[in-house]
Amino acid sequence: MPVYADATFVASYEWTIADPAFGGFSGIEVSDDGAEFVALSDRGTIMRGAFQRQNGTIVGIEAGPIRRLRGAFGIPLDRANSDSEGLAIAADGLTYISFEWMHGLRAFDDGFEPASDLITNAAFAGMQDNASLEALAVGPNGALYTMPERSGRATEPFPVFRFDAGHWDQPFTIPRRGPFVVSGADIGPDGLLYVLERDFVGIGFRNRVRRFALDGSGEKLVFETGLGTHDNLEGISVWQDASGLRMTLISDDNFRMFQRTEVVEYQLTD
Fold it and tell me: Domain 3-268 sits in which CATH superfamily?
């Protein structure tokens, strides 16, 4: 069983924009200073924004236009190709996105223009539709790490796949504990893998974050919430301010009126 890390809840901010394309957020990447972000929806759209903070707490959000992801010849990705889930921004400025219907990754330049076709792997062929590459993170050396939402069976660990220098491998797994499934991941400034998980319990969600070394060892439970504490958290970004490591998380409202887009922050103290 995992040992415990310490995380302190900072605040939650409910975010709304009067645009029918707003919502469904599945990924977030926050700048090193915590001021700016990129947010990804699971409908093939992406946007940049900036946080307004008072005493380190989010009190407002300014965001640019919601943009459709496009493929070859500038054509917007069709529905089958636009189930975008995981988000990672590499040091060279390339934005990588994982997709769970087509089971692969795509790269985009810093203007969100297409920089690659689908990057896939034969090992993904047997993954469940709408439950494959949910999480994506970039490591210190530029390698990409991706994980499926479900492992196949409740007793099987989650496989972690790595794409490095043009080649795929599967260097480790992480244990599956209880009913939680993977919803996001990030590799923090500390070089550790943070895995966001959620459990849907009929009337709401429970959320959890665990962290691991990049060989799958050193499992620690960062936090686990009770039912309804937060909405459907799917995106996670770990960054560092003057007081230490901070996690910014974002929820997927599934474009439903009874859910909400929530930006949540926790401070890590261990």
Answer: TolB, C-terminal domain (2.120.10.30)
